[in-house]
Each structure stands twice: as structure tokens, then as C-alpha cells.
Design brief:
alpha/beta; 35% helix; globular
Length: 328
């Protein structure tokens, strides 16, 4: 495998987490190579902090650096499409933070463009790449909790004072930032044969969702009841209920514990989760593997799955009559 040089677009909290991840990998084949911000001062400060070789005062300068093999996009949601499109047009492989774009139309357009330009593009929703995904499904497949019928999951953080979360212009709201994790959690267990979706939200005076309730039913009778909020912290737990017991996943956003209980609520088993750098390393390693094989998508989060999730988010927002100012 040849060395993969990574360029980070953005210098916020998530970009910092990726920089820590790349440095913590200690993999000579993956290099934390460049960072771009809207100002050179910010980029240089970030580069100094994380020992990054190149700093750019514009996104385009980084995208046009011929030495970069993969661009990680960590800017507000509303800018994902624009930056990813620039990357693709400049033949750069892309790892784009979730939500991949703001709507399914943008997603389909980007994926078609990436295929046309023969570059890798994938969504950086880390839970799809983590080992915990297989560990949870292996517990279900073992039959220890019997036939599975329903899921409850929640994710919430006190984010109401974060500008990008409360701004319609930046595609704010709970759904695209935290609710997307609850939807992915349910889909990773129950699959995509969905019958219907019913969602309600408490809206802000600016017209974005603050707290969400989402109920999904599947054609085989399974159901998921999901809760997401940007107003309060929640316990972040996911429960998978079967006829012989249930699984409790602590922190569906980055699983910390997987515990199995019987029908009497006795703890009967706990699954060990592998130690990790931050949890972001799995998506980076998946990209490196795909690029090395000249593949245009990652097995853990194929393009059809990214489209499917975005279509679900669109359906939910349509039920709320919620559109961002820049959407058609």
C-alpha cells in the first residue's frame, strides 16, 4: 500500500478529532499532511498544534495540492456539497462528514459526479465503520436474546447555543446532526425493508428542529422508536429487544459497552469493545483500503446506503414542512 496523504478541510472540533486520529494511528502509510481554513492564521495554528506539514488559507488551495490523496471534509453541513464537488472536479478522493449532504438530490448528484471522475467518495458516519457494528449483529445472530422485534434509541446533547446548530442557513437542527445516528443505528440492525416512517419535532422560531421523535416500522413487523435532541443531554443508549432478553448499547454515537440481559433483567453477558484511537480511524482505514484497490466506495457505507439514509431524512423533514433557505 502506497502512502496516503490526507488533507483536512476545516479547523473545528471534528477536524481536531480527525487530526488526533491521524496522528494516533502511527501508520507510516497514512500521513496527516495538510489543513485548510478560511484564514491562513487559523490553518497555521491548527497545523502547528497537530504537527501538520502544510497549511492553506483557502479550501481551494488544499484541493489543488497534487500530493493529497484524500480530502476529509469537516465544515458545516450546508457546505458539504460545494466542497465535495470541488474535490471531485479536481480528481480528489473524498471522505465527507455526515450528513453526507443536505438532501438526497445533492447526494445523488455528487455520487454520479464521483463515478464519472473515477474518484472515491464516502460518508464519514463513523458508527458504520466501527467493529461494534459487527459485534452487535453477532449477538443477535447467536440467538441469545431470541427473535428480535423492536428498538429504542436516543441521542442528545445541549447544543442550542452552537451557531451551526441553530442556523437554517447552515442546515442546522437536531435531525441532520444527531438524529441521523439513531436512524443509522436502527438500519444497521433491521435493514432497509421499511414500511413507513412517522416523525414529529419541536421547532425553533427560525424553523429548525430542536427535539425529534421518529417511529419507523418494517414490513416484517419490526419497529424502532427514536429520539434526538439538541436541547438536552440524553443517556445516548440503544436497546434491541428480543423474546428472550435484550441488548443495551451504551452510547450509540461511539459504543462504550454492549450488555445482554435476560427476560428477568439479569445481566448475562458483556461484549468487549476493542480499544481505539478515537473511533475515527476505522473510516480512514476503510478509505485507504478502497483507494489501494481502486474502488470508488467503501464496503462499510456503500453509496446506495448513503442515498437511502438521506432519502429517509428528506421524508422526515417533509413531514415537518422543513426546508432550508438555500434548497429549491
Amino acid at each position: 500500500m502506497k502512502q496516503m496523504k490526507v488533507g483536512i478541510v476545516g479547523t473545528g472540533l471534528i477536524a481536531s478529532l480527525m487530526a488526533k486520529t491521524l496522528n494516533g494511528l502511527n501508520d507510516e502509510n497514512i500521513k496527516n499532511y495538510a489543513v485548510a481554513s478560511r484564514t491562513l492564521t487559523k490553518a497555521r495554528a491548527f497545523a502547528d498544534e497537530y504537527k501538520i506539514e502544510k497549511a492553506y488559507g483557502s479550501y481551494m488551495e488544499l484541493i489543488q495540492d497534487d500530493d493529497i490523496d484524500l480530502v476529509y471534509i469537516a465544515v458545516p453541513h450546508n457546505d458539504h456539497y460545494r466542497i465535495a464537488k470541488l474535490c471531485i472536479e479536481n480528481k480528489k478522493n473524498v471522505l465527507c462528514e455526515k450528513p453526507f449532504t443536505v438532501n438526497a438530490e445533492e447526494t445523488k448528484d455528487l455520487l454520479a459526479l464521483a463515478k464519472e471522475n473515477n474518484v472515491l467518495i464516502t460518508e464519514a458516519i463513523w458508527t458504520r465503520y466501527m467493529p461494534s457494528r459487527k459485534l452487535i449483529n453477532d449477538v443477535i445472530a447467536s440467538g441469545i436474546i431470541g427473535q428480535v422485534h423492536s428498538i429504542q434509541a436516543n441521542l442528545g446533547y445541549p447544543l442550542k447555543d452552537v451557531k451551526r446548530m441553530i442556523s437554517p442557513e447552515l442546515a442546522g437542527g437536531a435531525l441532520l446532526d444527531v438524529g441521523v445516528y439513531t436512524v443509522n443505528f436502527a438500519l444497521m440492525v433491521f435493514g432497509n425493508d421499511i414500511k413507513d416512517i412517522f416523525a414529529k419535532a419541536v421547532m425553533s422560531d427560525k424553523g429548525i428542529d430542536l427535539t425529534d421523535s421518529i417511529t419507523i416500522t418494517w414490513n416484517d413487523g419490526k419497529m424502532a422508536v427514536l429520539h434526538a435532541s439538541m436541547m438536552t443531554p440524553t443517556d445516548r443508549c440503544g436497546f434491541i429487544y428480543g423474546e428472550k432478553g435484550y441488548i443495551c448499547v451504551t452510547n450509540i454515537n461511539n459504543p462504550e459497552a454492549i450488555k445482554i440481559y435476560d427476560v428477568e433483567h439479569n445481566l448475562i453477558k458483556e461484549v468487549e469493545i476493542p480499544k481505539q484511537v478515537t473511533g475515527y480511524e476505522y473510516e480512514v482505514l476503510a478509505c485507504a483500503k478502497a483507494i489501494d484497490k481502486n474502488e470508488l466506495e467503501c464496503e462499510a457505507m456503500p453509496h446506495k446506503e448513503t442515498i437511502f439514509v438521506m432519502e429517509i431524512l428528506d421524508k422526515i423533514r417533509n413531514q415537518w414542512n422543513m426546508k432550508y433557505p438555500f434548497e429549491k
